[in-house]
Amino acid sequence: MDVDNIIDSGLGGDFDDDFEPFDTAGDTTLPEERYLDRELSWLAFNQRVLELAEDAAVPVLERANFLAIFASNLDEFFMVRVAGLKRRILTGLALPTNVGRAPQEVLSDVSGKAHELQERHAAAYQTHVRPALAEAGINIVTWAELDDAEQSRLHDYFSRQIFPVLMPLAVDPAHPFPYISGLSLNLSVRVRNTRTGKQEFARLKVPQMLPRFLEIDSVAGTQRFITLEDLIANHLGDLFPGMEIVEHHVFRVTRNEDVVVDEDETENLIKALEKELLRRRFGPPIRLEVTDDMDSVTLGLLVRELDVTEQEVFRLPAPLDLGGLFDIAKIDRPDLHYPKHVPTTSVHLQPHEPNMQPDVFASITRGDVLLHHPYESFATSVQAFIEQAAADPHVLAIKQTLYRTSGDSPIVEALIDAAESGKQVLALVEIKARFDEQANISWARKLEKAGVHVVYGLVGLKTHCKLALVVRQEKGELRHYSHIGTGNYNPKTSRIYEDLGLLTADDQVGKDLTRLFNELSGYAIEKKFKRLLVAPLHLRKGLLKRIGDETANAAAGKPSGIRIKVNSIVDEAIIDALYRASNAGVPVDVWVRGICSLKPGVEGMSENIRVRSILGRYLEHSRIFSFHNGGDPQAYIGSADMMHRNLDRRVEALVRLTDPAHLAEVDTLFERALDGRTSSWWLDESGEWTRHHLDDSGHPLDDMQNRLMQQIAQRKRPGNRR
User: Fold this and answer.
1) Could you name the active-site residues (predicted)?
2) Are residues 649 and 566 part of one domain?
3) Of 4-13, 548-557, 594-603, 636-645, where does mean pLDDT reach its minimum?
């Protein structure tokens, strides 16, 4: 999926049909109903996104962007999560016993909440964002609001630029009901034959390659736009000459777009995946959105032909698909966006002298470098690391995992350059990255043609870890330079995703990565690493051990503490371990962006646990696991969330930080995020999230992301390290 659109637009989710829990049936020390519903928790996350769109203090084009993000997030939620629930109902497959409810009951609750949120989403556009845009000189108007001269000018535009690409499809005995592609915008048209009086139905697809919002004019700092479907709807007479237009309405279908490939039963994963991607286009409908003025005859026809239930019909005011607001949000009006932030080069990667060329290898040799994107530049750190390795004649090999990247990525180009110059280059490409499958297949083939050794990981597992290893010859010896990150090697998303990364020349990390890459590309089964925790074999066990150590310390009256930052926390075994830690007196802080199935603040179970969420201009994406460890702090960063798929069905890696300055930096991040003076959302035991963004006097609380950008930009180069 295009990184500028859905997932990577800023606050997207990462969806898998992830219903297989770790077995916790044997734990009788905790209440039976101790988990929040995963699906409702995700909808609560998207509600937090919507609250940003509703906030008048947020710049108006950013509010439009949040409306678009909400819409795109919800599309994907239906395509994967709701589709998974429906599939279980159709196949008679129950949810795991510890979910405690039947799929039908969960689906009913999810549908009710989704209806409520979509109506609130539409109201936010109509009553808040659209008027605010108009006040700022950006007017989204309807055809009826235009004068005769403007309508005439648009009629000419329609005749030249739009009419030739439209394809009305009739529905009659000779023309069966057409296939409606997922997420396409469509016009339902009922026409009457003026000679016979007979009514007919036609479907007209709104072309997706044309701008959704057409600019009418731009005068003296004001702009006006009209939606493409509104313009088309007012020219239906040109498409159906001699017919009377009886009714016309807009509708949109969401389909099940989950992809399932049995890797054990296929000899060629790429071919099997390409076949499954083709099938995905024809998945069954799971949601029908219609404009609220649609007549009952047309709606009845759509419901019957698409075979959807009343619960799956969403009646909404026009315009549908507010994901189209991404185009409006890109308007070049700096006064209506967040203040521009320019990432700085990490002070540890800057040359000592002003006119010297930066040398990433020399900088890493002086000591581990902890990077914090997007506050610190990806281009002058990770990208520079790979590019310098590709050009350096002393580099013998580069090994890298690629989960999501852009097709024109300088990372991919650097790997190609390295291979063409004779270096050994290994790229582990995850072609099963959801909605990026086709793109990943395309550039994986491009890498192969250039001589890169491309592998696709282990059967049955997604390779989600973010790893790069460079082997360099120095003074007759081989030296390892490594990067372990929390985010993808994607220059585009690195500008809007908050992530951490470690650059290190530590020999032990290099040896760990060498063994791990051998496991991923060959048949080696490596069971132990020194500075890494690796899933699926060891990561869960390693984290449970460290949580257990904190629990034992608290029970013995010793200082203890656990702090976790993740995108989502669902895994029952991890949650139960945190409950037991809380009962022993361990203070537990969970900083989560999206889904949280943990109930904080429950007496006798989790009164020592607090949960916070921070959303803003950047997508909080890093994962951090920090433990007091009896006064000798341990902290890990890496790619894994606390979900079943991350711990059991993916290759994930966490790396332990060892530099005291890095441990202090991580600790400071948690202190700031959990501070009552920082704007955030707080979770209560019922699953309700409450936004805390104003102080008692009504003044805005501290925006953590803005503050970090300011502080990191002011960092000065430290003295010689080590």
Assistant:
1) 464 (phosphohistidine intermediate)
2) yes
3) 4-13
CATH of the domain at 705: 3.30.870.10
**Cβ–Cβ under 8 Å, residues 622 and 565:** yes
Gap between the Cα atoms of 598 and 617, Å rounded: 26
Largest CA distance in the chain: 92
277 shares its domain with 375: no
**Does 141 reside within a domain?**
no
Q: What is the dihedral of CA 142, 148, 154, 155, to 10 degrees?
A: 120
3-state SS assignment for residue 479: strand
Q: How far apart are CA 435 and CA 2, in angstroms?
A: 9
Q: Are residues 481 and 580 in the same domain?
A: no
What are the pLDDT digits (tens) for 25-76? 446 688 988 999 999 999 999 999 999 999 999 999 999 999 999 999 999 9
Domain of residue 620: give its range: 534-713
The answer to whether 603 and 542 are in contact (CB under 8 A) is: no
CA distance 158 to 137: 25
How many domains does one find in the chain? 3
| Lowest pLDDT segment from 43-52, 70-79, 274-283, 506-515 | 274-283
List the one residue out of 639, 263, 647 whose CA is nearest residue 464: 639
Q: What is the pLDDT of residue 2?
A: 37
The alpha carbon of 307 is separated from its chain's Cα centroid by a whole number of angstroms, namely: 30
Q: What is the bridge-based pairing of β-strands 680-683 and 609-613? A: antiparallel
- 440 and 564 inside one domain: no
| Cβ-based burial of 718 (10 A; exposed 0-12, middle 13-18, buried ≥19) | exposed
Map residue 629 onto helix, strand or coil.
helix
What single-letter amino acid sits at 6?
A: I
- Residue 699 in any domain: the answer is yes
Amino acid at 708: L
Query: What pTM value is reported for the model?
Result: 0.91
Phi, psi of 214 (to 5 degrees): -90, 130
Specify the 3-state DSSP secondary structure of 31: coil
What's the rounded Cα separation, in Å, for the pair 602 and 684?
Answer: 9
Same domain, 458 and 404: yes
Tokens 């949109």 -> residue: 252
Q: How far is CA 526 from the centre of its chain?
A: 31
* Catalytic residue annotation: 464
**Binding site for Mg(2+), residues?**
404, 434
pLDDT at 521: 82
- Show which of 492, 525, 558 is a domain's final residue: 525
- Which residue type is seen at 675? D
Residue 248 half-sphere exposure toward CB, CA atoms < 13 A = 23
299, 229 contact by CB (below 8 A)? no
Q: SS3 for 394?
A: coil
Residue 502 and residue 538 in one domain: no
Pick from 293, 322, 351: which residue ends a domain? 322
- CA–CA gap between residue 626 and residue 670 (Å, rounded): 10
The torsion defined by the Cα of 570, 576, 580 and 582, in degrees rounded to 10, comes to: 20
Under DSSP, the state recorded for 30 is S
Burial class of residue 430 (count of CB atoms within 10 Å of its CB; 0-12, 13-18, 19+): buried
What is the distance between the alpha carbons of residues 383 and 249, in angstroms, rounded to a whole number? 48
User: Which amino acid is located at 509 in the chain?
Assistant: V
Return all residues near 152 (Cβ < 8 A) that are at least 6 apart. none
**Does 36 map to a domain?**
no
**Is residue 462 classed exposed, middle or buried when 0-12, 13-18 and 19+ CB atoms within 10 A define those classes?**
buried
Q: Which residues are annotated as a binding site?
A: 73, 404, 434, 497, 593, 621
**Separation between Cα atoms, residue 10 and residue 168, nearest integer Å:** 36
